[in-house]
Amino acid sequence: MTQIQTVEIPIDQFEAMRHCDIDQMDQTQAGEIMGISRGTVQRLLSLGRSQLLGAILENSAITINLKKSEETNVSMCTNKQQRRNGRRSS
User: Fold this and answer.
1) Is there a contact between 40 and 69 (Cβ–Cβ < 8 Å)?
2) Disulfide engineering: 7 pairs with which of 28, 55, 56, 65, CB 3.0-4.6 Å?
């Protein structure tokens, strides 16, 4: 029996994709909410999308690492209203 490969996506890459692709924010808005620059959001989007698409094409499992972040000040916003208002949950 073969073992399914797992692709782990860090929380900051996931959050960048969620803000830009699901919440339809531009990179500047996402950066403000995440507390990072627009350029960093762009890099996180590129890395996250590449990993996500690669996992789909390779039929791999996808996990979101809620503890691993490239940026120490990025936290996940769990409330949609908080994300829209630019407030992060503590």
Assistant:
1) no
2) 55
pLDDT (tens digit per residue) in 32-66 = 999 999 999 999 999 999 999 999 999 999 999 88
- The whole domain housing 55 covers 6-85
Look at residue 90 and tell me if it is in a domain.
Answer: no
Q: DSSP code of 30?
A: H
**Domains of the chain: total:** 1
- What single-letter DSSP state applies at residue 20? I
Q: What's the one-letter identity of residue 9?
A: I
39: three-class secondary structure by DSSP: helix
Element spanning 29, H or E: helix 27-34
Kindly state whether residue 14 falls inside one of the protein's structural domains: yes
- Cα dihedral sign, 11-12-13-16: positive
CA pseudo-torsion sign 41, 83, 79, 24:
negative
